[in-house]
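Record 1 of the preview.
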Amino acid sequence: MRGGLAQSPQNYCHTTNTRFLPSGTGYIGSFTALAILEADYKVVIVDNLYNSSEEVLNRIELICGKRPEYYSLDITDEKALDKVFEEHPDIDNVIHFAALKVSSNMSREGRQYGI
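->
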């Protein structure tokens, strides 16, 4: 094609197919991890398991036959996160699910919410 794109956009981008999912063991994160693994991408999860369980990783593996790489840490620990990215320079996308979600807890546990 003259004067335009002769190739599809993926030919212009280099991806390593590794997705980073903070809080990937939660309800939405785990279903997303499962879908990503089934699409033949690599998944790296970090989660402090505040509102989930490491058993989720076993269930993901049971369903799709692949186990995401997992680090038990809090995303507010910058040094630990830096280490994850150093160990996985192939991470090219982040899908961020980490959050505290129950607003009724904010008045009782404000420090966790930055209040």
